[in-house]
């Protein structure tokens, strides 16, 4: 028999440094910042990742707040959190966003509390944002893992944009100019994926997630009881 002091069992023969209940310690989720020029395949890669095992149950895409009107088929809390301009500006004044921007007269932002609560529950979160938003997030959450996705060439990016059949040549030209501005910041990211072949790019993205989950700090949290047992006298 032994006795407890602050949750540690002291025995006549040894000291157990792991919790007697052997409860699994909740592992902190990882925040992934993913940026890419329009047409590089960022959204398709993220959606494909969410459909694969073993990533499905503990990974999700961040849902942003916006002041724009909901479009047909969009649901509050699923596609966006739809709020008024006054509500959004009040959130800004209380520093409730990790990042935000005004695009074509509408505000878009990422809630700090939602991200922090989700990460605390052990769920990984993907932020689909541009390089400017990425810089804002890094300042507030420097432990975030950032990934830049690039096309194999400008010619291929142009082909993909035209292949959508959604924009005029004038709009496509603007998107190409924006793409160059986005790609200039590739060296600010932890990882770079070239999306030439979709299957290969998806495998690269999966490898990044896998490697992040095998980091020392995350494995120590996840397997604390096991490691304590292995190191016990």
Description of the structure:
Pfam families: Guanylate_kin. Essential for recycling GMP and indirectly, cGMP. It is found in: Cytoplasm. The protein is an alpha/beta fold. The chain has a domain at 31-62 and 122-231: P-loop containing nucleotide triphosphate hydrolases (Rossmann fold, 3-Layer(aba) Sandwich), CATH 3.40.50. It is 40% helix and 21% strand. The chain contains 9 helices and 12 strands. It has helices spanning 42-50, 85-93, 112-120, 131-140, 154-163, 169-183, 198-213, 216-222, 224-231; strands spanning 3-5, 8-10, 15-16, 31-35, 59-61, 65-66, 81-82, 97-103, 106-111, 124-128, 145-150, 191-194. The protein has a 5-stranded parallel beta sheet with strand order 5-10-4-11-12, with helices on both faces. The chain has a 4-stranded mixed beta sheet with strand order 7-6-9-8. Strands 1-2-3 form a 3-stranded antiparallel beta sheet, with no helix packed on it. Helix 5 packs across helix 6 (169-183). The protein is globular. The two termini are 17 Å apart.
